[in-house]
Design brief:
The complex is a heterotrimer of chains A (303), B (339) and C (327). Helix content of chain A is 74%, strand content 0%. Chain A has 303 residues and is mostly helical. In chain C, 34% of the residues lie in helices and 24% in strands. Chain C has an eight-stranded mixed sheet with strand order 6-7-8-3-9-10-12-11, with helices on both faces. Chain C has a four-stranded antiparallel sheet with strand order 2-1-4-5, with helices on one face. The chains are: A mainly alpha (303), B mainly alpha (339), C alpha/beta (327).
């Protein structure tokens, strides 16, 4: 017979509590040096890709125009990263290449989340045969090694940026569906759902107003961690020739064509590969930092 | 016995999965492409060839009939014919498989042998310099494009240091003067078994770089998973209970916590294997490794559709069986999972 | 008065968190005598569990013991080396926790875990350790000790698991058993059995129990003496009977008045106004003063010492009883 009384807090204070938690998380985040570095790197790469025409005098070459007189120049003052096999400035190519490589990463995760949330929420909330069917379908896709499935679909659709994105998205949506479903399942069992239902709140309303907001946090954390991997797979697909077609710049494609010259002239395949590495690294660091900050256990750490 | 129930259930699930895999592959092969017949026949097909293919594939028929026809061909061993070389895919697969298997196995072993201990130590000594170094290495490992890493390693170890060969499974010399007798197709085994130690050393040196390149992603992943699992375990009540009972820290870490942290090792093994397998596609070409990877890369670069689809199917089937096997092993190991 | 087994004085434990410095324990002081069950009772957040861990110096990061004396058989544990503490943990003082299924390592058998503790504290080999384990299994009332020895934790019921934990705790001659909410996770009937076992151990093994709990009924059943904790300090302490029936501190009075009882039928249930202070923003002076129905000016400013309020060491930290010199 405990003398403890459970206090039911009014809506206002619960929101205030959530806001306070968010501020704490932001504080913890700002203190982590790796988190800050990763954000800076990501900002730089996004800006570099967006502002490419402004950052390099070789805009035309970035977009694809060859300059055959300057083939294979090693890094110099005029060309900080050298020129490639068609004489194009490598720095320009890398900046322009960021456009397709970065956007594929974002788009894939966006599509996977957009598909996964509704499917997962429905499967988790309604259960029954709907859930079983959806789970069988996700299992079907999860049975494939991801890269292979993406290659096969991309090959079937034909090489292009959109097709590559669709192909990779096909391998990614099952993860988010499962994640959201698992979250929904545990949330569904909580009393507030039963309470809402008992006073006649519609299913749709419960899902949208009660379940989804709670599902967003883990989804967001996972998405941040996934952008890096998505970029990596995206560049692998274009490395194999199934992505955006030359002469448009793309990091994966640059490494692929630069491969045969690499031992003697490493600068163009090397720069493109380094760009992929740094951007993926930044996103992975960011994902780790976000996860550490959001996990209540790791947050209870020293000032 | 409850164990048997679990095994049978798992087997049944695997069969279901295989069926669904075949359905998806069928869709990719026949339904998604804008012109399945052309895709199957090749890059510059004549009108006749397309017509013949259309008939052979039964493209006019209803979907389920097409599917049955497709599965029928597969079970007969007909995986299509390469659009470029006109060789049957099934023969090619048999030729190129051993080289890739050897590479993938070597890389998986590397991943587990390097990754597991580092992950455990890193988690046990959280916050130490070892931990920071290992975390740096592991996050770099999972962020690195394998195809780029391969090139870098070649540049460094071959060009700069001259320590390791550029590519291939054995050097020219060896293939001329100390030929490897083909028993299993696994050079390391074949040379050891026949006592051909010169060739063994050569084959070993040749497999190092490609295997390590493949293993890097898996090592990073293994370290991260094992480390976080170790940290999780160390936060458990039973670890505190052991400490308050006076068990010395070394035993707590490396006996009591370790056994719990290692349970997902089987999962880790599976993941390393899968990443090595798919990574081989990207990496073999760089090291002139005559395996499935090079085969598939060439096929993809020239959009040799029959090869792509059939390899996807075969590798996935293999992957399903490997997962099944690992699940069963895991069930046998964990005392809690027998119910 | 017999020599005290455990004597805690002026214990302060705090945690550095992102939200601020949490003062979990603020001058906790109590003693446990040989062969007695002492109940440390209070609501969640009053610092009682942290106190238990502090005695064994196992306060988890980011917590730290900043001040205090913990005398065990006269020796200050806070001054001992880690090696000496390892001897004491399990050998002199043992601890069991709330959820026994979480306190047992799932991948080792019960026997393996108990024998390991035995071999750690004695020079016993595997055979002797096994014999000792079977002995203590019997002493705590576990049926078929050899089968228990071979079993994995998940194969045992909650009650048996807790008995196994108690067995492990007693296997190496510990004189004090710290039990942190040992029955909260168990069924009511099993609760009764475990509590009876703990009370019996006092007689059969001469072991004292520091029983940490929030449940006043448990205290009434089992404890010889009681200490009531609030916001990291003891506010009232004495014989169980005295504290529970002739309570003096306003907080204790409020606690017991809040318990629903048959005589309250038809009347509104009472509760204590306000809520427990969070460890970061502790009120000055007496920690209970913001909620106290009998608060005085001095309570807002000065922290009360433990003043005698009754026989046999019944004390309360309240200025209402400040006429006598503090204990």
């Amino acid at each position: 017979m405990a003398a403890n009384v459970e206090r039911l807090e009014p809506q206002g204070t619960r929101r205030a509590a959530r806001y306070r938690e968010f501020r704490l998380m932001l504080q913890a985040f700002r203190r982590d040096p790796l988190a800050v570095i990763s954000l800076v790197l990501i900002a730089l790469s996004i800006l570099g890709a967006l502002l490419a025409p402004l950052l390099t005098p070789y805009g035309g070459q970035g977009r694809g125009d060859p300059n055959l007189l300057e083939k294979f120049r090693p890094p110099s003052r005029a060309h900080p990263l050298g020129t490639d096999y068609l004489g194009r400035d490598v720095l320009a190519r890398v900046l322009y290449g960021g456009r397709s490589s970065l956007s594929i990463g974002f788009l894939v995760v966006l599509v996977a989340v957009a598909v996964g949330i509704p499917l997962g929420a429905i499967a988790g909330y309604y259960g029954g045969w709907l859930d079983s069917v959806l789970m069988r379908i996700t299992d079907m896709f999860l049975a494939f090694p991801p890269l292979l499935l993406a290659i096969a679909i991309a090959a079937a659709l034909g090489p292009s940026f959109t097709n590559a994105m669709i192909a990779i998205a096909f391998t990614w949506w099952p993860w988010y569906t499962r994640l959201v479903r698992a979250q929904t399942l545990s949330l569904r069992e909580q009393y507030f759902v039963e309470a809402a239902r008992s006073i006649g709140v519609s299913d749709a309303s419960i899902i949208v107003r009660h379940i989804l907001p709670n599902v967003l946090t883990p989804v967001l954390v996972q998405a941040t961690m996934d952008i890096g991997s998505a970029i990596l797979i995206g560049t692998a697909i274009s490395y194999l020739g199934l992505g955006i077609r030359p002469p448009t710049a793309d990091w994966g494609e640059m490494v692929s064509t630069g491969r045969i010259y690499f031992i003697e002239r490493p600068w163009f395949a090397g720069s493109a590969g380094a760009a992929i590495f740094l951007v993926t690294l930044a996103f992975n660091l960011l994902g780790d930092a976000v996860r550490d900050v959001v996990d209540p256990r790791t947050r209870r750490a020293v000032k | 016995m409850p164990r048997w129930e679990y095994i049978l259930r798992r087997l049944a699930m695997a069969v279901l999965v295989l069926v669904s895999v075949s359905i998806i592959t069928f869709f990719i092969a026949r339904v998604i492409p804008s012109d399945p017949a052309a895709a199957w026949v090749g890059s510059h097909p004549t009108v006749d060839q397309i017509a013949k293919a259309r008939e052979q594939l039964g493209l006019g028929r209803p979907l389920h009939e097409q599917y049955l026809r497709y599965m029928g061909a597969i079970f007969r061993g007909d995986l299509g014919t390469s659009v470029r070389s006109h060789q049957p895919v099934s023969t090619d697969l048999r030729t190129f498989l051993p080289a890739t298997m050897e590479l993938v196995l070597a890389s998986t072993v590397m991943a587990v042998v390097i990754g597991l201990p580092l992950g455990v130590l890193s988690g046990a000594r959280k916050g130490s310099w070892l931990d920071h170094l290992t975390r740096l290495f592991s996050i770099a490992g999972v962020s690195m494009p394998t195809f780029w890493l391969g090139l870098l390693l070649q540049l460094f170890f071959f060009k700069q240091l001259g320590l390791l060969p550029l590519g291939g499974r054995v050097s020219m010399e060896i293939s001329l003067y100390h030929r490897v007798q083909q028993i299993t197709g696994f050079y390391l085994i074949d040379t050891a078994v026949t006592g051909n130690w010169v060739a063994f050393k050569d084959a070993l040196v040749h497999i190092l770089l490609p295997a390590f390149t493949l293993a890097t992603y898996a090592i990073g992943l293994t370290i991260r998973m094992t480390r976080s699992r170790m940290i999780e375990v160390l936060n458990e009540r039973y670890i505190l209970a052991a400490r308050v009972a006076g068990i010395p820290e070394r035993s707590v870490l490396f006996v009591l916590a370790l056994k719990n942290a290692i349970i997902p090792a089987v999962t880790v093994l599976g993941l390393s294997f899968v990443y090595s397998l798919t990574g081989a596609i990207l990496v073999e070409m760089i090291f002139s490794w005559p395996g499935l990877g090079t085969y598939v890369t060439n096929a993809v670069l020239s959009i040799d559709f029959p090869i792509i689809v059939s390899v996807t199917l075969v590798v996935t089937v293999f992957y399903v069986f490997v997962n099944l096997f690992l699940d069963l092993v895991q069930a046998l190991l964990d005392p809690r999972v027998s119910l | 008065m017999s020599e005290l087994l455990l004597s805690v004085a002026d214990l302060h434990v705090r945690f550095r968190t992102y939200a601020g410095l949490v003062h979990a324990v603020n001058g906790m002081a109590f003693d446990v005598r040989p062969a007695e069950v002492f109940g440390l009772v209070g609501e969640s957040g009053c610092g009682k569990s942290v106190t238990g861990l502090a005695v064994l110096r196992q306060v988890p990061y980011p917590g730290e013991i900043v001040r205090g004396r913990v005398l065990f058989r006269g020796d200050d544990l806070l001054q001992k080396s880690e090696a000496e503490m390892q001897h004491i943990r399990g050998g002199g003082i043992s601890m069991i926790f709330q959820d026994p299924s979480a306190s047992l390592n799932p991948v080792f058998t019960i026997g393996n875990q108990v024998a390991r503790v035995v071999r750690q504290h004695t020079s016993a080999g595997p055979a002797k350790a096994r014999r000792r384990a079977l002995e203590v299994f019997d002493a705590v009332g576990l049926p078929d000790p050899p089968r228990i020895f071979r079993s994995y934790p998940h194969e045992l019921s909650g009650g048996m698991q807790q008995r196994a934990m108690i067995a492990m705790a007693l296997s190496c001659g510990a004189e004090l058993l710290i039990a942190d909410e040992p029955t909260t996770a168990l069924d009511v009937t099993i609760q009764a059995q475990i509590l009876a076992l703990l009370a019996e151990l006092r007689k059969t093994q001469g072991v004292s129990v520091l029983l940490i709990t929030h449940d006043l009924a448990v205290v009434a059943e089992t404890c010889d003496r009681v200490g009531v904790a609030y916001a990291g300090v003891i506010v009232e302490m004495g014989r169980a009977d005295d504290v529970l029936h002739r309570m003096k501190h306003p907080y204790t009075q409020g606690l017991l008045a809040a318990l629903p009882r048959p005589i309250h039928r038809g009347r509104q249930l009472q509760s204590i106004e306000g809520s427990v202070p969070d460890g970061i923003h502790l009120p000055p002076g007496c920690p209970f003063h913001p909620r106290c129905p009998r608060v005085m000016e001095v309570c807002r400013v000065e922290e009360p010492a433990l003043f005698p309020v009754g026989p046999e060491g019944h004390v309360a930290a309240c200025f209402l009883y400040a006429q006598e010199a503090p204990v």
